[in-house]
Design a protein that fits this description.
Largest sheet: none
Order of helices and strands: HHH
Low-confidence stretches: none
Helix content: 40-55%
Shape: elongated
């Protein structure tokens, strides 16, 4: 925790955060002042977006196409 400046995911680790940002974040978590978000991805996420990224990385598409395909993917799963 103190080497990587992370907040542990487990409640049984009671080491205090030593850097200001981690301490502030830990306090927000303790106070319940957090925004809940999706913690899992759809089952086809990596196969769909991964294919788009492979095309981009192999110079078979450009950045605009990559962004468009990823945006279209997320619109389809909402």
């Amino acid at each position: 925790m103190n080497t990587c400046n992370v907040i542990p995911a487990f409640n049984n680790i009671t080491l205090p955060a030593k850097d200001p940002m981690s301490a502030d974040l830990k306090q927000h978590l303790t106070d319940g002042n957090i925004v809940k978000f999706m913690v899992t991805l759809p089952s086809d996420h990596w196969s769909k977006t991964g294919a788009s990224m492979q095309k981009y990385l192999s110079d078979n598409s450009d950045r605009a196409t990559l962004i468009k395909e990823i945006m279209e993917y997320w619109k389809s799963v909402q």
